[in-house]
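Bumping with the actual sequence this time:
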Amino acid sequence: AIFIAGTLPEAARIISIAREIGLNEPIIGGDGLDEKELFDIAGHYAEGVMFATLFHPNEKDPQAQCFTRLYKEKYGKIPDSNAAKGYDAMKLLAYAITKAGSTRPDKVAAILRSTRDWPGATGLHSYDDNGDVIDKEIHIVRVRDGVPELLK
């Protein structure tokens, strides 16, 4: 397998070149590949590529389904992971400010560090005492027929 620890657009160019020169090994990458730009640049060469993501619009999670439905109603298209992550970031910040009763960074940070199982579009959010994300579910997708397909 070929593991690409990179982001777009460079990763898409690497995928294209690898396929053009005849490398047919599986290609695996991180969430840096989870953008429309992968398909814009790599085109059909993206077929079969697998990558990690925090969000997929076909997740069974009720929060993800609700976010996907509302986003599609408002914008007329299916949300990508960046839309979901941005939504969660703003909602989580609003939650922390409200709970802290302040916008002071130290107070907001203390609330975030104590947050456990906050429900967002990308699943549950929990943090440890250092502010690091813990127990976050990561999904794996594979490009099939030009579309990122959620693997079980």
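The tokens above came from a reply further down the thread. Residues 81-100 form the longest helix (20 residues).
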